Each structure stands twice: as C-alpha cells, then as structure tokens.
Amino acid sequence: MSIETKIFTIQEANALLPQVRTIVTRIQGAHRKLTHFREDAKEAAKAAEHGGGGIAGGVAYATALTELTLKISELEALGVQLKDFERGLVDFPSLRDGRVVLLCWQLGEGDELEWWHDVDAGFAGRTPL
Q: What is the pTM of this model?
C-alpha cells in the first residue's frame, strides 16, 4: 500500500456505497459498450489509415472508452479500488488489528459492507465482518 492510500472505516465505506454503486454501474455499462463496439473500432482504425474513418461504432467505442476512464478516475479519487469490471467488485482499504486489509463489496450485495479480506488473499479469502 502506498502512503497516499486512503484508509476507510466501515462507516465511511458504507456511507460511500450509494455513490460507488452509481459509479460502478456506469463503469459496467461503458465496459459492455467497449466489448460490443470493439470490432467496429478496429474497422474504423483501418479505414482511418486509408483516409476514411467515421464508422459509427468507432465513435461509440471512443465515447465508451472516455466514459470508462472518467468513471474509473472518479472511483479512484474517492480512494476506492476497482477489482473487476464485470462483477462490479471494489475494495476499500481499511485497518483491522493494526494492519491494512480490504473491505470488499460487489454490485448486487446489500447497502452495507459485509466482507473483508487480507490484501494478498483476494476475493477467495473473503471473511464476514
């Protein structure tokens, strides 16, 4: 963990969950669009090499990429770590027994955090709070 890592209490993390849920939902939508328009973007890039371009899917891809980048930056600015686009999995660094751990939450879970894990344990090491 870097010195600049924000450390959350459970209460602080829970208070941010509504905002985090909104951001992660938008990240997921942008990620789905990127996947959907990936081939169109490749075609637009090929056409651009020959003086063409302007393929609508390429524009949609670029728009989704911008949205994804902005929303990830917004999440990171809060101090929240995005772990998995598709699952909507995020971690909140926290202290437990004097060491840094990660409070773990994913889209579809409740309005309060219920899980934590050691920094090196990952999702598989989730333990109830």
A: 0.82
